[in-house]
Design a protein that fits this description.
Layout (H helix, E strand, L loop, with lengths): L3 E12 L2 E12 L3 E5 L6 H8 L7 E6 L2 E3 L4 H7 L1 E4 L11 H5 L6 E2 L2 E2 L5 H10 L15 H14 L4 E5 L7 H16 L3 E5 L3 H7 L2 E6 L2 E8 L5 H9 L21 E8 L6 E5 L4 E5 L6 H8 L5 E8 L2 E3 L4 H8 L1 E4 L3 H5 L6 H6 L3 H4 L8 H15 L15 H14 L4 E5 L7 H16 L4 E4 L3 H7 L2 E6 L2 E7 L4 H12 L15
Helix pairs in contact: 4-5, 14-15
Keywords: ATP-binding, Cell membrane, Membrane, Nucleotide-binding, Repeat, Translocase, Transport
Pfam families: ABC_tran
GO molecular function, one term: ATP hydrolysis activity
Length: 514
């Protein structure tokens, strides 16, 4: 279809001191899946807010089916036919699933909201997502993934002709993401335009047919067929220059060195069976698997957060039992960079210097527990400089930083404690291409300096970029091991075949046929 639904021409949006959008244009046509791409700060969120009536543009014009429109509120945008699912969920926790789905236009009877009539349309929208939920269940009882799908069901209820999805798969498992992609294809088949915002370029190329790329508030590629561009083309447009793994300096870990961490036949109360692995100095060992494979749960058991029921954990060859993350850090030098940086990684309402030095207060403390402010700030500043954390000052609260800089602050606190083994869990979820590359280079350099790293990631490109060896997990067991030769096509094929228990034997070694 070539029916243009919504078009923006020369859109300008200015905030005090910032020209957030500077002549941006895009054209959204019926039946298309349109990728809106750009780094953090490129203007994507501002453009979405202009298209959905949150912000009025300061210049340019919007047209709906060829007629100029002024969207004065999100409700007006919804009534026009423009829906949005934001990355940050916008649900009322104590309301039921049905109440949340029908909130913008609840069924009414004789001028009053008819709660009894909410379940039927809610169930219809949930069925489109193949989501089996009780419509009367409070939203606060749902998992993060279920809440995300309820957000999408809200958009289905309003029958949007243009539907904007902002990082919709950030909290979904691969199976749930596939379900969402099926919904997107059904929507476009009946003429809806879906705008897909994602940092996961693999998803973009699998799903989208058209692309707009923003950089520094400008559209550097506007409503162009995606088929005419490669992965590297898009990355180069987003960041303004080539960003490839080839820029990483040489690093060759010593495979003959004694392991820093070894698991031998470990089983846990969570269901892991006979797990064995080793991590050596300067080595990045990857744990890859689908959501639910048990990777994070395995690490938490090692750190004392779940019960080890069998097997042995060794640090530097000595059998150990770790009772808590605190003991893991202070006795064995294990740092754990959690995937949930906002709730577990940083104290959002505390200054940066306090976040970084929290792991070494005991070491910095003088008599009666007093921590000298000058020493605390010096330790923090050294790591801010080393990691390239972009801050206005050490007194700035961590909650004011971008996601990528928050993750660097979380890493800094473990480096401050002279961590001798670093566990990194989903380190770049929700960060843009440039930040992801910078974080990859940072981990690479740490390993090059001799730090052993255990990397947990669901991002296959990230895994193949960084890991020396990839251990493939499924159903709380290690199903295979692949030496990484850096060839994405060959590596991804071998890893996926292990997950699906095809073709490959239980353990593969470098040099075997792919």
């Amino acid at each position: 279809m070539n029916d243009v639904l919504l078009e923006g021409r020369e859109i300008v949006k200015v905030f005090p001191g910032v020209r957030a959008l500077d002549g941006v244009g895009l054209r959204l046509t019926a039946g298309s899946v349109h990728a809106l791409l750009g780094e953090n700060g490129a203007g994507k969120s501002t453009l979405i807010k202009v298209l959905t009536g949150v912000h009025a543009p300061d210049g340019g014009r919007l047209t709906w089916r060829g007629e100029e429109v002024r969207l004065r509120s999100p409700l007006e945008a919804t009534r026009t036919g423009i829906g949005v699912v934001h990355q940050e969920r916008n649900l009322i926790p104590d309301f039921s699933v049905a109440e949340n789905i029908t909130l913008q236009s609840p069924p009414a009877r004789r001028g009053f909201v008819d709660r009894g009539a909410m379940s039927e349309p809610a169930l219809r929208c949930l069925a489109e997502l193949d989501l089996d939920l009780d419509p009367l269940r409070p939203v606060r009882e749902l998992s993060v993934a279920q809440q995300q799908l309820v957000e999408i069901a809200k958009a289905l209820y309003t029958e949007s002709r243009v539907l904007l999805l902002d990082e919709p798969t950030a909290s979904l498992s691969p199976r749930e993401a596939d379900r969402l992609f099926g919904v997107v294809r059904r929507l476009t088949a009946r003429g809806t335009c879906v705008v897909f915002v994602s940092h996961k370029l693999e998803e973009v190329f699998a799903l989208c047919d058209t692309v707009t790329v923003l950089r520094d508030g400008r559209s550097v590629l506007e409503s162009s067929p995606l088929a005419g561009h490669t992965h590297d083309d898009i990355v180069n447009l987003m960041v303004g220059r080539a960003h490839t793994a080839a820029e990483m300096p040489p690093r060759t870990p010593d495979r003959t060195a004694a392991p820093v961490l070894a698991l031998d036949g470990v089983s846990t109360a969570d269901g892991h069976q006979d797990v064995s692995l080793e991590v050596r100095p300067g080595e990045i060992v990857g744990l890859y698997g689908l959501v639910g494979a048990g990777r994070s749960e395995l690490v938490k058991a090692v750190l004392g957060l779940d019960r080890i029921t069998a097997g042995e954990i060794r640090m530097h060859g000595t059998p150990v039992r770790i009772a808590s993350p605190r003991q893991a850090l202070h006795e064995f030098g294990i740092g754990y960079l959690t995937e949930n940086r906002k709730e577990e990684g940083v104290f959002l309402d505390q200054p940066i210097h306090r976040n970084i030095t929290v792991t070494v207060w005991k070491k910095l403390a003088k008599a009666l527990g007093y921590v000298p402010a000058a020493e605390e700030r010096k330790a923090a500043q050294d790591l801010v400089d080393r990691l390239g954390i972009r801050v206005s000052g050490l007194e700035q609260n961590a909650g004011e930083l971008s996601g990528g800089n928050q993750q660097k602050v979380s890493l800094a606190k473990w480096l401050a404690a002279d961590t001798r083994l670093l566990v990194v869990d989903e380190p770049t979820v929700g960060v843009d291409v440039r930040t992801k590359h910078a974080f990859h280079r940072l981990l690479w350099e740490l390993a090059r300096e001799g730090l052993p790293i255990l990397l947990i990631s669901s991002d296959l490109t990230e895994m193949i970029t960084l890991a020396d060896r990839v251990l493939v997990m499924a159903d709380h067991r290690i199903r295979g091991e692949v030496d990484n030769d850096g060839d994405y096509e060959r590596m991804s094929g071998r890893i996926i075949r292990i997950i699906h228990d095809r073709a490959l034997p239980a353990v593969t070694t470098q040099g075997e046929a792919g």
